[in-house]
Design goal:
- By secondary structure, the protein is an alpha+beta fold.
- It folds into four domains: about 100 residues, Serine Threonine Protein Phosphatase 5, Tetratricopeptide repeat; about 90 residues, Serine Threonine Protein Phosphatase 5, Tetratricopeptide repeat, CATH 1.25.40.10; about 160 residues, ABC-type transport auxiliary lipoprotein component (Rossmann fold), CATH 3.40.50; about 140 residues, Roll (ibrinogen binding protein from staphylococcus aureus fold).
- It contains 16 helices and 16 strands.
- The strands form three sheets. Strands 1, 2, 3, 4, 5 and 6 form a six-stranded mixed β-sheet that branches.
- A hairpin with a 5-residue loop joins β4 and β5.
- α4 packs antiparallel against α5.
């Protein structure tokens, strides 16, 4: 759909206008070349030369015709003459923005005609005057934005700066505009913060950070917004109701569920919900007489929440757990023993049906009133294959898939990780990002390579630094997940492959973790980012475009793993806020 060819400085489209334009486009697409030619002649007779020229272009797209080309030249030439006159009038009236808009209309017509193989005439200094007019329009809009910013009219300032970007600014001017937009959005966020509209304030601060990544003042502002608008909760470890449910539960199931909730839920709560640090919660529980047996009571939960300076207490209890097994197959197999000879073991296939019901209660810490309560039920059907062996499983000479821990009644010792600190929790990554930002911001990305398929190594160093002064980031993407840093660099001469070649030489402008999510970003000076994803079934490191002005998802340029499949696709976005079903959002703006 072509943009509106009006010279008005502000375009307001209602839903009715959009539908009407869509119907026009569909109607044009259904018309024949001859019908479009006839419409062009009618418009030309009415003096609507530009519209007539576009009809002729549409006709040529369907069928090449010399007569249509002739009419396109005639109508297009007159339209360009009209545009030239309008440009002159706007400049004479000291309206460079209006003149720039006419140039954009003229550019559209020239491009459409050129696509049909027709070159329309322009005046001799068209290109030079075109650039000068665009520069004058940018300067005018910058001045309008600066005046609005000085008057605390941040919305008008943002509108002016955004509009200035339409006129093809140079890289240096674009950088200046981005800095102005960051300041304007930051001021606009402060207005919303003072008004108590916390979510609006946060969104504006986030927009400001898209133009000035890792700027300390904006990060502090965003933190202040979250501190002012967040509800603080204290989430307690999951209890278990005794009796049949407890007996049916696998060993350490409750502890594993508590760990999963702490790692994936309470460490990544929705925006404007701040969870108390789980170790602090456990210490508070232990401080009460009676240990952890009393915190499920409403009054005690509220008391604990107040001790932790929380607004709400969240208590969960496994109310029911059922486990049904049905053996499907039992097979005797033979395997060689590493110590010599052979041995037999049994392969058992079982259908497993598990269901659990979790009851939750949210209590106001001050009034001890229940804010909301309910239950969640989950059922899983699966087929389990288990090996049964009377001796040491490690003595059997089996394929690696057969030896996997958890598939045997006697589990082989699990592999441990030494020498590497695996960092995949949100709070650890956030602390890591703040630490790395101080060392890496302003340094240059010198190398990116992989010596193992599931590991990426980044070498980052200040300009003119020796190899010994460089930092090496090791990103683990396989069974072991995490990130750690070492000093100096040493790349093997063989069996290593260079990655992200087009990003090498770029300056790192900041290191930041997404708010309430485990996306670790390394921002580069061309506004692209390296996104480090250390979680989920497919961890990866993606090189993605910067934030798009039209709100579209940035595209993946390339990736460490599965680069061919991911190149050009929409980059994954952090998911910081998940709306609950109870009144946890009452204080949000």
């Amino acid at each position: 759909m072509r943009r509106s060819r009006t010279r008005s400085h502000v375009h307001t489209f209602t839903r009715r206008h959009v539908v009407s334009l869509l119907l026009i486009v569909l109607a044009v697409g259904c018309k024949s070349a001859e019908e479009l030619y006839d419409e062009g002649q009618a418009l030309e007779a009415q003096g609507r030369q530009a519209e007539a020229a576009f009809r002729y272009v549409d006709s040529l797209e369907k069928e090449d015709n010399a007569a249509v080309r002739e009419r396109l030249v005639a109508a297009g030439t007159r339209a360009m003459e009209g545009y030239t006159a309008a440009i002159g009038a706007a400049i004479e009236g000291s309206d460079p923005v209006g003149a720039a808009e006419v140039y954009r209309d003229a550019d559209e017509l020239l491009g459409a005609a050129g696509g049909g193989g027709v070159r329309l005439p322009v005046f001799d200094t068209y290109d030079e005057d075109h650039r000068a007019t665009f520069d004058a329009a940018i300067a005018t809009l910058q001045e309008v934005g600066d005046d609005a910013y000085a008057a605390d009219d941040f919305e008008r300032a943002v509108e002016a700066y955004d509009r200035a970007t339409r006129y093809a600014p140079s890289p240096s001017v674009q950088t200046a505009l981005d800095a102005r937009r960051a300041d304007a959005y930051g001021g606009w966020a402060e207005v919303a913060l003072v008004a108590g509209r916390f979510r609006t304030a946060y969104d504006r601060a986030e927009r400001a950070l898209s133009y000035a990544p890792a700027q300390r003042a904006l990060l502090d502002l965003q933190t202040a917004i979250l501190d002012a608008g967040s509800i603080r909760i204290a989430a307690f470890p999951t209890e278990t109701r005794g009796g049949r449910a407890a007996r049916a539960m696998p060993t350490a199931f409750r502890e594993a569920l508590t760990d999963r909730l702490e790692d994936e839920v309470w460490s990544r709560p929705p925006l404007f919900v701040a969870a108390a640090y789980p170790p602090d919660v456990r210490r508070a529980i232990r401080s009460l007489s009676g240990g952890d047996e009393r915190y499920g009571r409403r009054g005690t939960s509220a008391d604990l929440a107040r001790v932790l300076d929380a607004d709400l207490a969240v208590a969960t209890r496994l109310d029911d757990f059922t486990r049904a097994e049905e053996e499907r197959e039992r097979e005797t197999r033979t395997a060689d023993r590493r110590s010599g000879g052979t041995a037999t073991y049994t392969r058992v296939t079982t259908d497993l049906d598990l269901s659990a019901t979790l009851v939750y209660e949210v209590v106001d810490a001050r009034s001890r009133r229940v804010v909301c309560e309910g239950e969640v039920e989950r059922r899983v059907d699966t087929r389990l294959r288990t090996g049964v062996y009377a001796g040491r499983v490690s003595d059997l000479d089996l394929a690696r898939s057969e030896r996997r821990p958890g598939r045997w009644l006697e589990t082989a010792p699990s592999r441990t990780t030494t020498g590497r600190h695996v960092t995949t929790s949100y709070y650890t990554l956030r602390a890591l990002a703040r630490l790395w930002n101080g060392d890496l911001a302003g340094a240059r990305l010198l190398d990116a390579y992989s010596q193992n398929r599931a590991e990426l190594t980044l070498v980052i160093a200040p300009d003119e630094a020796e190899d010994a002064d460089a930092w090496t980031l090791h990103l683990l993407l396989g069974a072991e997940r995490g990130a750690f840093r070492s000093g100096g660099t040493h790349r093997a001469r063989r069996n290593s492959v260079t990655l992200f070649e087009d990003a090498l030489g770029r300056i790192v402008t900041g290191v930041r973790v997404a708010e309430r999510d485990r996306f670790l970003y390394l921002y580069l000076d061309d506004r692209t980012r390296l996104a480090v994803l250390l979680f989920g079934p497919r961890p990866n490191v993606l090189w993605i475009d910067g934030v798009q002005g039209d709100g579209a998802a940035p595209a993946v340029r390339t990736a460490c793993l599965r680069a061919a499949a991911l190149r050009g696709t929409a980059a994954p976005s952090p998911r910081p806020a998940r709306r609950g079903r109870c009144a946890l959002h009452a204080r949000r703006g």
